[in-house]
Amino acid sequence: MRTVGVEEELLLVDPETGEPKALSGAVLARAEQSGTDAGVFEKELFGQMLEFATHPQADMKDLGDEIVRCRREAARHAGEIGCTVAALASSPLPVSPSVGRGSRYRWMAEQYGIAVQEQMVLGCHVHVAVESDEEGVAVLDRIRPWLSVLAALSVNSPFWQGKDSCYDSYRSRVWSRWPSAGPTEVFGSAERYHRRVTDMVSSGVILDEGMVYFDARLSQRYPTVEIRVADVCLRAETALLIAVLARGVVETAARQWRAGHPPMDHSVSLLRLAAWRAARSGLGEELLHPSTMRRLPAETVVAGLLQHVEEALGESGDLERARAACDTLLDGGTGARIQRELLERTGSLREVVTNCARLTQE
């Protein structure tokens, strides 16, 4: 059974006003002092953000429990210095991001200018174990069309600088401004993948391999494929769903490779259109079906994803869990929809943030 790990970025906010607070350094210090959470939490580009990483897990119930525990521990450490955490992929309230210290972050700020200041968005990255770089690149080539559906399930960033962006995932539109971000062509081999990464770093446009922001890539640190398309999810069970489906598409892709089935040859241009469609309306309207790249109702496309991974999820015991979680989201449970409903009910973006901070820890 392939192991799966999750990295989530959380927003640090004032528990009363909902305003983002640049206190990640203090929260990290508290976590280090606790002893039990040393190494779990990490700093991010901005002081208003806190990241955690789970251990690799083979059992999805164990992974879900760890996501919940990490969120609650993050909230506990934040509460000790007067703030809390919210799993929001963008700040609903206006914010002036505070770029972290260090030569790497300074280089990024100087190189990319205002684009860095506009990059305070928060994602969920899923690591799925692979046996080799060859298997990993074969997986990357075959999961490309399915990533937009994972993104649609995760949408959780409708607001930007105090306004409705008209997108369900504005985070993804902001993230796409990085010169190395987005979908990739079919690589065909690990050698071609690594040559492409080397050429990108050698260009000088990006600082190092860590800035290769493909939608999915080989991890630098772990023997995994890292899927990077999801917003950080408002509810922990949605984050778990993304992890379950990520393992499903990776396992299915690996089986296709071993059986000699070639990847679908959709162009990067079409994959970008699919990503835009997913970001624009999430599960609320239509998506591009990964097989045909033609518009279909979101529920039909989600059903297609579940059918695609049915064998893999059935063998891991996760199929019914995934079906139930997808039904919940299709019935109106996406983070973006919940945020908009909170605003409609309360009339206050501050109330949106404070309510979402509570939902983060459930």
Automatic annotation (TrEMBL):
It is an enzyme of class 6 (ligase). One of its GO terms (molecular function) is ligase activity. SUPFAM superfamilies: Glutamine synthetase/guanido kinase. Its EC number is 6.3.2.2. It comes from the Bacteria. This is Putative glutamate--cysteine ligase 2. InterPro entries: GCL_type2/YbdK_subfam, GCS2, Gln_synth/guanido_kin_cat_dom, YbdK. Keywords: ATP-binding, Ligase, Nucleotide-binding.
